[in-house]
Amino acid sequence: MLINELIPNLNVENYVNEFKARLLTGVDKNQDDNELKLLKEIVAFANTQGGSIYVGVNDATHEIEPLSHAEVDKTVQLLYRETEKRIEPEVDLRVTEIPLGKDKPDQYVLRIDVPKSGYTPVYVHVNGVPACYIRQFGRAKIASPEQIASLVIASTRAPYDSLFTKEIYEESKFTKLKDRFLKAHPGKTFDIKLLESIGFIDDKGKLSRGALLFRDDCKDPLTLAKCSQFPGFDKGGNVVTASESYQGCLFDVIDKVMDFIRNHSTTGYKKTATSRIDFSSFPERAVFEGVVNAFAHRNYFIFGTEIQFDIFLDRLEITSPGSLLGGKNLEKEKNIDSILPKRRNEVICHVFELVHMMEAKGTGFDKISESYAMGDENQKPFITCNDESFTLTLPDLTFKGGVIGDDNPYPNIHLQGNIVSDYDAKILSCCYYKKRSLREIASYLGVSPSTHLRKDILGKLVKDGYLYMKQYGVAFYYFTNREKLNQEHIIR
Questions:
Q1: What gap in Å lies between CA 483 and CA 195, rounded to an integer?
Q2: Which residues are registered as beta bridge partners of 269?
Q3: Tell me: the pLDDT tens digits for 346-370?
Q4: 331-336-340 Cα angle (round to 5)
C-alpha cells in the first residue's frame, strides 16, 4: 500500500513533507547518530516554513510500513525525550496517529507536524555543539552563517540575553557584579529590585540568559575570546608569536583581554619643543571601548564562534560574530562616530552601563574616534561589517606608515644596509602587499624595465631569499618574503 492511497496527493518528499520508515536509536553502521536524523529534520522545518514527517513510510518506495500501537507509543516517547533534551528553543510539535483502517487493526502511520518557529534560529545539539539546519530541495541542510543571520533578523523572538531561564538568582554567585556596582556607585544599595529593573531577573527571581554570562563561575563557551599576535601584516605563514584564549565571567574575560593587548603593545614618547608626549600602540580608551562593544553587540545566537583580538605590525583587529545591527555592509568605514547601531543585547548593555563600563547613550565609537584625533588619514580607525561579523580596526600609532592595505600599500622599510642596490627598500616595499610585475616595479621606482633591473637587482633579491618570483603566463611577478624581512629588518 502506497502512502497516497491512504492520504491522497501525498506522494513525494518536498519542502513540507518527509517520510521515514522508523525512528531509530543509537548509531548506524557508519557510526552516524540515528536520533539526529530525525532531529535535524524537525529543526529544518522549524527554521524554514514548517512541515510534516510521516513515520511508517519507506522514503525510497513510498510504501507504508505500518507501526503497531506499541511502536507508536515508543516512537512518541523517543520523539519528546530527544526534542526536549537536544532542541533549543522548544518546538511545539503535534503528533497524530493515522489508522490504516478497520481491516488493518493496530496498524498506523504517525504524522508529526512541525510548525514554523517564530523564534528562529532553532538549533539541535550535536555532541554538545548547537547546529542549525534549514529545509532545502526536500532535505535538511546545514545553514550557512548568512542564512543563520537571516533567521535571526526574521525572528520575532526576544534578544538572546533577554530570554529567562529556570535558574534562580543567588547574590553569592554574583559577587564580581556587586563589587563593581558598589565601586561605581559609592553609598548606594545593590539589591534585587535594581536587577529586576534592567531585565537581569524576572519578578520570580529567574535569571535571564544574559545574566548567566556575569555569574562568578560562568563557563559558557559564548564568552570565549581568542587573542593572538602575528609578526607581520596578516596571518600568512601560520606564524603566531603569542596566543591566549579566555572564557568565563564577562568581567574577567574583558580584564584579561585588556591585559593581553597592553602586554603585546609598544609604548614610547614623542618629544616636543617644551615637553614630551607619552603614547602607545593603541590608545587605552579606544581599546577599552572596542573590547566592551565587541561583547555588547556580539550575536550570541551564533554558537561555536568566539570574539577575536588579533594584533599585527600595523593594527589591532577586533572581530565579533554577527552583523552590527544598523550598520550592515560597511567596508573600511572611517567615519565611525556617525555609526549608531541598534542594540542587540539589552541586558548585557544595561549591566555594562550599571558598572560604568558603557554609557547609556551612544556606542563608544565617538570616544574611539577622539582617541585617534592626533593621527593622520592612514591612522584612522575603521569598521568593516557584513552578515557574518563586524570588525573594528585600530591602527598602531607607533607604526608611521599607517594600516597597510589597498589605501596604503607601501610600508616604510628600513634596511640595516643595502642588499644589492639603492632601490632595495623601495622594491621590497612595492612588493610587500601585492605581487608586482617587472613593469609595475620599474614604474614605482621611476626607471625603465631593463634587463639590468630584472637580472642584476631583482634576480639577486630572489636568489638571496628576499623576493619570491612566480610566472603567470608569459610575465613574471615578484612578492616580498615577509617572514624573512620581519625577522631581519625593522619595518616602520
A1: 52
A2: 278
A3: 999 999 999 999 986 656 788 999 9
A4: 105
* The C-alpha cell that represents 450 in the structure block: 631593463
With residue 154 as reference, give the H or E element that holds it. Answer: helix 145-154
Distance CA 130, CA 116 (A): 19
For 254-323, the three-class secondary structure string (H helix, E strand, C coil) is: HHHHHHHHHHCCCEEEEECCCCEEEEECCCHHHHHHHHHHHHHCCCCCCCCCCEEEEECCCEEEEEEECC
Task: Number of helices (H) and strands (E) in the chain: give both, helices first.
Answer: 16, 24
Per-position b or e across 456-489, b if 16+ CB within 10 A of its CB: ebbbebeeeebbebeeeeeeebbebbbeebbeeb
Q: How many residues are there in the chain?
A: 492
pTM exceeds 0.70, yes or no:
no
Q: Are 158 and 210 in contact (CB under 8 A)?
A: no
Closest CA to 418 of 431, 427, 409, 405: 427
Query: Looking at the DSSP assignment, which residues form a beta bridge with residue 98?
Result: 109
Amino acid at 312: F
Residue with cell 563561575: 217
